[in-house]
Amino acid sequence: MRLLLVEDDEILGDGLVAGLKMEGYAVDWLTNGKLADEALKINSYELIVLDLNLPDMDGLDILRALRNRKDETPVMVLTAKDTIPDRVLGLDSGADDFVIKPFELDEVCARLRALARRNEGRSAPTIEYKGIVLDPASHQVTLNGEKVDLSQKEFEILSFLMSNIGRVISRARLEESLYSWDSDIESNTVEVHIHYLRKKLGTSIIRTVRGVGYIIDSEDDK
Amino acid sequence: MNYSLRQLLLVTLLSASMLIWGVTAFINYKVTRDEVAALFDAELAQSAKVLHTFVEGLLHGDSLAEHWKKNKADAAPANSTEKKIALQLWSEEDSLSLHSKKGLKIPVNAAKDFSGDSPLWQIFDEFLQTDAFGHKYARKIAFQLWSNDDGLLLHSESAPTFEFSSSVHGFSERKIDGHLWHIFSITNPNGEYVIHVGQKEEIRSQLTDEISSHLVTQFLIGLPFLGIVIWLIVGHALKPINRLEKQLAKREASYLKPLSTKKLPNEILPVVNEINNLFSQLEQAFEHERRFSADASHELRTPLAGMLTQAQVALRTSDEEVRKQALQRIKQAVNRMTYMVQQLLTFSRIESNTEFLSKELTILSREVVQVIADVEPAAHKKRIQMEFVEENESPIIVNAPLVNILIRNVIDNAIKYTPAQGSIMISLTGQKSHLQFCVEDSGPGIAPEQYEQSLKRFHRCAETVNTAQGSGLGFSIVQRIAAIHGAELILGASQYGGLKVTILFPVPKPQSEKVWQKKLSFFNSKKYKSA
After folding, report:
1. Complex ipTM
2. How many CB atoms within 10 Å of residue A113?
């Protein structure tokens, strides 16, 4: 899942990147408000973590600009200002969640999962499909009650496809969600991961749409 | 010592009115006594004259004797006329007791003059019997009728049988049996007889005493009422103070909105205005404090969040490399926070008790050299060329430790923002009225429109926020210390391409130097003693 982190503090930003990467997010980190604003215009992210106190511009302005563009990407705001008016202003400007510094990394991750879940239109913490149960929090997948060992990238691809059941996801989109700017993408990695997923969960589960991408068909279609 | 305004006013007002009343009462007493004396004297004289006329008429004026005889027949009206005369005579003295009934000592020849049945005595008797004796003044008035030839002819019961006064005409005083008598004497034109009319002093003093005692009782009765009225009026007048007190008592320490000045008397208004003034100053100070602690906590939260996150990364990861880097970052964050806390402490220290700073003549270059010696290693690490030029330096009056902090902050800042192999130029130039301390660097500098912004607390430049680890307090500290010393902080562009920080310290005037030194030595010695 691709995530944009906007945080000017070097140590905090670095820690968040490391922590979020461990959670399987593909993290793009920007320390500058203007760059973040530009990046949001070009790229699409599943989640945005935004610090409000940026040296060159107010984080809330980035948020407002984003919402004005009808961009519904969930935004979690990081702030050191914990007064109620600050929170109200933040939420009213379009933030989906608020975390006060200093925070627990676990809490941030849990909240991010909840944000993603809500964005996908579900409220249950796990995703189920034809005997496959995917738990984003624990990064575990079970098939008919038995644990299936998946690599991180395999989990991400499965999670992305299962979050978008019945929709074709292009290969580029999958790649985008798997890798941040700084990672090298080999052209066939997605295919390799799909191959292993089919091996572990059954070949019928992910259908290839030639020249376009991949899809997990909705259960009632069959 | 505390006291009650109400009680004070009550006591002083009562005492003052008592004193004023006492003085006026005394003057009144004097005046009344004199007036009474004059009145009684006049009356005495009048009585004597009336008596004289009467006796003269009896003795010489046939008409009156004949009148009496004539009127003997038709008794009633004559009676009333004679009564009238007697009344007129005696009522002047508030009716006299006349020694007529028992032992009436009228000499024979004098008695001859009167008709045998002596209607005058009858009149007197009748009259006297009615109510004369009852009167309290009766025994204090007396008269005598002395014949030159025959001695005492007629006298009132209260009168002595010896001659009242040696004086034959006019006022005189005499003491008889311990009583003072005021006597008016009158001699008939032929010198045949003398009439003495006497009046005891007691009548007068009794009257004045009575008037005075009336006044005193009135005042004594009125005094408690006056006291109550004063108490109530003062209480009413002090009501605004009570209201104020209640208003203040209800307040919490943090509530510093101004007090209402509605319906306040002009005497209390300035006090309340001053209190409100103080309140607004306090509120500003509180607001300042609040903002400072809010800013400070905000500034501390971000590095804390960084540390916490890095710690969690270090705990979670199984990658040794990642853990090592996270721990390295934590160490870095701790260093940064240490610096920041230090700066915060410095800042709060110079923010408070600046009024009691001791200042002394200081050679600024010594401080600059000391700071440069301290920070040189840091500059050397970045291969920064540092140079110090000094000319025309004159000593200035400053608090050396504070100015040391100022110099350190400015130079530290320059080192922080100057890239490796850059250069820093430090100069100290004496001018007419100022000593100019100047630090120029070859760093990125600050855009002129950002100068004001960069002096704000916790402000850090966007371009350099990640390359230099500042606290955002450096310039605030510099600015504050400069303000304490009346020095001016100017930001500008450096000839090396970076920032130029100039601080102008005022140089004391030569003639005032001695006075200053005196003052300072006094101040310092005092401080030293108290410390």
Report:
1. 0.71
2. 17
